[in-house]
Prior knowledge:
By secondary structure, the chain is mainly beta. The chain is built from 4 helices and 33 strands.
Amino acid sequence: MPIGTPALNQGSAGTTINAPLGQKTMAGSIPVVLPSDVKTGIIDSGNSSTTPLGANGVFTGVATDALGLTQVSVTAFSDQNSATNGFSLQWSSDGTNWDHTHSDNLVANNLEFLSSGVHNRYYRIVYTNGTTPQSFFRLQVIQHTIQTPNLFTSVDKVISSFDHVQLFKGVVTGKTTAGGGAYVDVKVNPFGALTAAVTAADGDVFVRSNSASTFPVNVGTIGGSNISLGQQLAAASIPVVLTAAQITTLTPPAAITGFALETGGNLATIAGKDFATQTTLALIKAKTDNIPALGQALATASVPVVLTAAQLTTLTPPAAITGFALETGGNLATLAGAVSASKVNVNISSGSIANTSFASTIADGASVTLGAKADAKSTATDTTAVSIMSVLKEISAMEQAPASRAVTNAGTFAVQAAATLAAETTKVIGTVNIAASQTIAVTNTGTFAVQAAATLAAETTKVIGTINIAAAQTLATVTTVGAVTGITNALPAGTNLMGKVGIDQTTPGTTNAVAIAQIGATTVVNGGLAGSLSVGGTVATNVAITDNPVNIGAQGVSADVSAVTTTRKAQLIADLLGKLVVQPYALPQQLVSGATSDITNTTATTIIAGVASNYLYITHILVTNSHATVGTFVNITEETSGTVLYTGYAAAAGGGFSITLPTPLKVPTAAKALQATCVTTGSNTRVSAVGYKATI
């Protein structure tokens, strides 16, 4: 039924009023006014960025739920080119597998635009930069809840390959000028080009043919004049430019009268004149006739010739020249006059030199050897060639440092006087060896004093060495006894105090055993492990404490101690104030906690970071979701492995869950973080947790 101005029922009053709503645009319509807080476009910050990318850098946006949207528009602008197809809008049905992509290239300093309707539930932007780092980068995504109109541009704008257009496919129809003015479809040829019949009255016609055999054009007249093939010089001719291949096949023209003829490569005549008869040319010819055939001409107006090395070797040497020395066998036969020493090097291997003078000095080492000299004193140089200078130097060295030689003398030698020792006793005559059988009498004169027998003084501090005391001897009181090496006999029984006594139990429990029956005049309480001292309390249960109680202590620490092995004794631990540490709580220094920021995607987010060599134990978890419409399951997981340790649902608009764990939740792997992962994209979830760390 048609809808006009709606009537509003006023309830029990039964009255109605006619109230138009908003702006009517046509008869019978219901106008709608959108409130000011309804937006047709929302910026998607998770897929927008202004951070420049480095060389080959990649920006990957977050998976965003597109339910409720009608269109997504993306713009990108940068001073550097993108990678090939590096600007892409991707679509996914589950937020993980990206099955559909719109890709394009961004050219530096050109705004690139992508727009798409909703293809799948989730979308994201992936932008890959080219090989040059960006100086600036502006990427923005706008979500549309209402379909936006297509972009338009001014009619005079120059269209480039970077402009976006709509794909158009349809049928073009036109109204016929004959046949009653009916509308018929416009035809195209097999290549997609429009076909048209052209008449003389239709104006200028331009024909473009991709294949001459398919679309031949026959031009018979130009400007009203008939034309034929070839180069016509007359009016209305068509000039023809021949290719190089065509020029080589042309038939040359006939001989032209009045031009010089060429025969054998030389012009026979010039202007009817013979070459040799012309004055100027004759002079040139005369000059060229004077050029010698080969060699260096010494005559006037000769042309010098420089011979190459190869030519010089083939020259015939000149005949002997009178007055010059002749060379035979490599030696000059005669030398007329003096020849300087620097010009002649004489090497004489045999023979003699007569009437010859040489320099007065010979450089050191210039004459190496003068033949082999047989040395009658040494076979080492019998056949060794040595120089005279070497022999002289050797003699000089021996004279400067003569060798030691044995001396043999014959004849009569003077007898030396006998050596007589003087009376002085200080004469030193060296070492005197006296045979064992010799006796040297000592003769002394005078009176000798008789020495008294040795007697110990009364002082007790005299040290006389080691004294052996017979067993029957009795010592008086000894003030100090030094270290006693050992006592071979047993100590006598008695009541005298001996001071501190140490007992050496060579075999504990069997040899030299000591039984303690009382401590402090009180009998030791019986009980306890065999071989250990029994200990008993001083008072019974529920009796007033009158004596000093036995305190039970614990080890005060600020961090966990090393773990003991199974079945071994473990020391109780307390904090530094003596408060005993009892599970499930831990030392204050071992407590851990953490909280995430807003989680809007399905990426694992760390709640509490891992601690090296420690496990995390979680005692409480709190999850809240502030998104107005999107709820999600939240998985509490282990870092890297993604193992789900706990899960719960966080409804939209403040939903979530809080759980205190009587048995702490343990992260299975040491040093791994506690993480939270939302199952649905688009929520606004925060997760908090507390607990403690431990090495086991």
